[in-house]
Write a structure and sequence with these properties.
The protein is an alpha+beta fold. The protein has one domain: SMI1/KNR4-like (3-Layer(aba) Sandwich), CATH 3.40.1580. It has 5 helices and 6 strands, in the order αααββββββαα. β3 and β4 form a beta hairpin. α1 (12-24) packs parallel to α3.
């Protein structure tokens, strides 16, 4: 088996199939499943994906667009599950609104991520996973809102950590049962 770091675009069909199997239950999902809705949200139509891209002001990476249009509009995946691109509700949950990547910026007071970063999922406490919509290979970034000290002359960018060199690698790591934290923790040490 090829490790996540050596996967290429030629492997994207296999990745989408694997994500679909994990999301919709034909394969056993990984431990984060306990934090997820009973099932993923239905895939977006091409029209809905176009609307989300217009709202973001950037096209989605091709692989991510395929995930949202062929697998589901969030509710599955690494950590607490991918955010949706359209507002969603989860009945019978204490907080019924599922995180929405296209509206995440609107609820943030003060500093927010650049428009070229797309919110992927929460990372626990004050951490959030993002993907760059404009950088080559679409690296995944981990931002810690508590990871910087203004009294030391730091700004919110000091809370940013490089997590994975590409969205493809980050998704394959999860799909293969790996820990998406491994790369980011290796860079901290």
């Amino acid at each position: 088996m090829t490790d996540a770091a050596h996967r290429t675009a030629a492997d994207d069909d296999a990745l989408v199939e694997r994500l679909r199997a994990l999301a919709w239950g034909t394969e056993k999902a990984h431990p984060a499943a306990r934090c997820l809705p009973d099932q993923p949200f239905p895939p977006l139509t091409e029209t809905e994906a176009d609307r989300a891209e217009r709202s973001l002001g950037h096209p989605l990476p091709g692989l991510l667009r395929r995930v949202y249009t062929e697998v589901g509009d969030g509710g599955f995946g690494p950590e607490g599950g991918l955010a949706s691109l359209t507002p969603r509700r989860v009945p019978h949950w204490p907080a019924p609104d599922w995180p929405c990547a296209t509206t995440a910026r609107a609820g943030r007071a003060g500093w927010g991520p650049p428009a070229s970063w797309l919110f992927l999922t929460g990372g626990g406490c004050t951490m959030e996973w993002y993907v760059s919509l404009t950088a080559v290979d679409h690296p995944v970034l981990l931002w810690d809102a508590d990871g910087w000290e203004p009294d030391r002359g730091e700004d919110p960018h000091d809370g940013l950590r490089y997590a994975a060199p590409s969205l493809r690698q980050w998704l394959w790591t999860w799909a293969d049962g790996g820990n998406v934290w491994d790369d980011v923790l290796a860079h901290i040490e």
